[in-house]
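Deliverable D5.2: sample structural annotation.
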Amino acid sequence: MKFKEKVKAIQMRKYGRSYREIIKETNVSKSTISLWLKDIELTPRQKEKLLQGREISRYAGAKAQQRRRIERTEEIMNNAREELPNLSGNELFLPGLMLYWAEGAKSNETIKFSNPDPLMIKLMMRWFREICDVPEKKFRIALHIHEILSRKNAEKYWSKVTNIPLSQFQKTFVKPTSLGQRKNILYNGTCVICVYDKNLFRRMQGWKAGFLKRMSIN
């Protein structure tokens, strides 16, 4: 048995030191430390101090994580701005960027574009594939349809439009049919393109910021 280490561990615990601090000082496993110290009771003040220490540590960790996220976001956005000269020569780039800016999701770093027009959906699918290099497995499709429509037929229709298999479709949202909706026999619901990629969202934000700067709009 590591007698010296045990004595030191007990003394440290009696002074209100945390298990983490004791393990670091004695270089003994957590399971052994727990066994040695299981019968040592801390005073209410010592418990309060340890709790405050853990809260401070968690706060510091959260702030560090937040700082890393901000730094990473800035790095991605700066790199995206530098891509603009090359991307601007692609006739698909700007229309897709403007459409997403107008119709796409803007919060929670979630990429979602919804529209009932199949041609617009085809255009944006091409934009995500060719400009954003989104892997096929990352696409998810969600549908919003009226109850008058066949869910099965709508899903098959949009699967063909997007060229995304039904296995990558999310649960279809069905809503009550209005009188006006009954008159539009060509309506097949609204298609939502979803891509869950925070780094791509940040990259797209960088493209937008770079474009606005180039246009002297701020």
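Annotation notes: The domain at 90-214 is CATH 3.30.1330 (60s Ribosomal Protein L30; Chain: A;). The mean pLDDT is 84.
The annotation will be released with the project's public dataset once the embargo ends.
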